[in-house]
Design brief:
148 residues, alpha/beta, Barwin-like endoglucanases, 6-stranded mixed beta barrel, Expansin/allergen_DPBB_dom
């Protein structure tokens, strides 16, 4: 009995089809909430506002990222992968770069999510990733992130 042969012309079509169904994973997965003002004082820089990036894309690190304060100043690429409100990620392939300036567990603005790997994103960073206009508000999102 012979083994049926797979048509070689079908292989490239299947590769294309399956590649369009998924997004590549570039890092770790966690949750993010919105970090609201007042942002100062911070665990990393106390009352020094000059340590905040000029584009206001910054975050507070949760316990899984904090590393006893070693996370201060680290830069992370972050992208929204899903939200409780369907289609709230502005662009599932878009990434932003944030700087860690605070510890989420002691931040003036405390997270709603307290377990797992979390980040609190500045208002500006959250708005770049998530459509916050119209519909039900999204306060927590699932993210992929990678240290740069």
């Amino acid at each position: 009995m012979s083994t049926p042969k797979f048509p070689s012309t079908l292989f490239p079509i299947l590769i294309f089809f399956f590649s369009e169904l998924s997004y590549p994973c570039f890092g770790d997965v966690g949750a993010a909430g919105q970090y609201t003002s007042p942002y100062i004082p911070t665990e990393c820089y106390s009352d020094d506002p000059s340590e905040f990036p000029s584009n206001n894309l910054f975050a507070a690190a949760g316990g899984g990222i904090w590393d006893n304060g070693a996370a201060c100043g680290r830069q992370y690429k972050v992208r929204c992968i899903s939200t409780p409100v369907p289609a709230s990620c502005v662009d599932p392939e878009a990434t932003i770069q944030v700087k860690i300036v605070d510890y989420a567990n002691t931040a003036v603005s405390r997270p709603e999510v307290t377990s797992g790997t979390i980040m609190l994103l500045s208002h500006e960073a959250f708005d770049v990733l998530v459509n916050t206009t119209g519909g039900a508000p999204t306060t927590t999102i699932n993210i992929e992130f990678q240290q740069v």
